[in-house]
Write a structure and sequence with these properties.
Distance between the termini: 29 Å
CATH architecture of the domain at 24-124: Orthogonal Bundle
CATH superfamily of the domain at 24-124: Winged helix-like DNA-binding domain superfamily/Winged helix DNA-binding domain
CATH class of the domain at 24-124: Mainly Alpha
Helix content: 55-70%
Radius of gyration: 19 Å
Strand order of the largest sheet: 1-3-2
Strand content: 5-15%
Number of strands: 3
Structural class: mainly alpha
Order of helices and strands: HHEHHEEHH
């Protein structure tokens, strides 16, 4: 394991904050263009990956609570983007899947996002593009593992710190 200095960690965190802001700005533009909210967009894309799943699985995949997922599912069902059906094995479990309208919407989101991110990669050389793709995959995996395996340490405001 590589030991990072305080300066290294601070610089890394600064870079993450810039990436976070840029991604949030980009996501707002993308979802505004597609006529769905950020939460709806991510839920649609999660369903596109899995084709059919339940509320609990979506909650785990998207890292948010079941109540938020249920509200988002309700809004997408009302808009005609997804089906909600009782599970075959367990009637209490709701199976969620994309409608044809939902598939069209996810295809439109993918096209828009792919076109935009292709522009980002056009500014990089071939080796840099590979490094960026690999680094994003690694940091995404590490951060997901970190979130799911380790409870948060607590807020810096707790205990009067």
């Amino acid at each position: 394991m590589h030991m990072m200095t305080e300066k290294d960690i601070k610089d890394f965190r600064r870079g993450l904050r810039v990436i976070e802001r840029e991604i949030l700005l980009r996501l707002r533009q993308e979802t505004d263009c597609c006529g769905v909210t950020f939460a709806q967009c991510h839920l649609l894309l999660a369903l596109d990956d899995s084709r059919e799943t339940g509320i609990q699985d979506l909650s785990e995949t998207l890292g948010t609570d079941k109540a938020n997922i249920s509200r988002t599912v309700d809004s997408l069902a009302e808009a005609g983007y997804i089906y909600r059906e009782p599970g075959m094995k367990d009637r209490r479990r709701v199976a969620v899947s994309l409608t044809s309208k939902g598939i069209e919407q996810t295809n439109a989101i993918h096209k828009l996002c792919n076109d935009e991110y292709r522009k980002l990669f056009e500014g990089l050389g071939a080796e840099e593009a590979v490094k960026v793709r690999e680094a994003v995959g690694i940091i995404a995996d590490v951060m997901t593992r970190w979130r799911t395996e380790k409870p948060p340490a607590g807020c810096c405001a707790e205990g009067g710190n």
